[in-house]
Structure formats: C-alpha cells, structure tokens
Design a protein that fits this description.
Elements (H helix, E strand, L loop, with lengths): L10 H9 L5 H8 L8 H9 L16 H4 L3
The structure holds iron/sulfur cluster.
Amino acid sequence: MTTCPYFEHCEFVLRYVARVKPHWDDFINHYCQGELREFCKRLEWFQRYGTKPPAELMPTGQTVPESIERQR
Ligand code: SF4
C-alpha cells in the first residue's frame, strides 16, 4: 500500500500522532498507509477545498480530545 500524498504535510500526523506515540500509530497503519484512507476526513478536506484542514480534525471526522490537546 502506498502512503498518502499529504503525509509529509499532514498536521494531524505531525502534531498529534507523534505526541501520543505509539498509541495512535494505527491511524497511520490503517489510514495513511492502509485501506481506510479513502474514508479519511482530512484527505477529503484536502481534496475538496485544496487547503489544509484544521490540525485537530481526526481522520475519523472527530476532533482531537481535550486530554490529548493538553499533553505537551
Ligand atoms: S491523516 Fe489522512 S490526510 Fe493525513 S496523511 Fe493520513 S490519510 Fe493522509
């Protein structure tokens, strides 16, 4: 499976997946490099609007929980 073309610039991956590592690595396995990519709400945003989605928009369409937001 190829990697999503937005992977290097995807702020959700860069900011949050790295922060809670390894707990959210499955987002990369299943969305960025897997069969769920076609359902990724971030990818849909990139393609529909041609702009970056908010960093806190998760591939599922949910928003990053406050508890993760507070982790530094
Ligand atoms: S979260 Fe979605 S848009 Fe971002 S790199 Fe992964 S599949 Fe692509």
